[in-house]
Amino acid sequence: MADVIDMAQRLQAADNDTAIAAACVPVPRGVPGDCHQCGDESKRLVDGWCALCRDARDKTVKTRGGGFYEFDGDR
Q1: pTM
Q2: Mean pLDDT by groups of 10 residues along the chain of 75 residues
Q3: Which residues, other chains included, contact 23 with Cβ-Cβ below 8 Å and sequence gap of 6+?
């Protein structure tokens, strides 16, 4: 019969397997160029978007002139 420690170890192993599987997603290839959203030059664009714009889709986005505006989430 399994005791509490055995059950905890099985649960931890299952959690580790889930975390490892989630971390193994492919990273999209990026290309250098100008961001389609903010216009800034970036060494890595994914789908034409720089990292700041990809991360800030629902937040405030930086503009080329250094200002900020609220981004509504539409591509």
Answers
A1: 0.46
A2: 87 92 85 92 92 72 54 50
A3: none
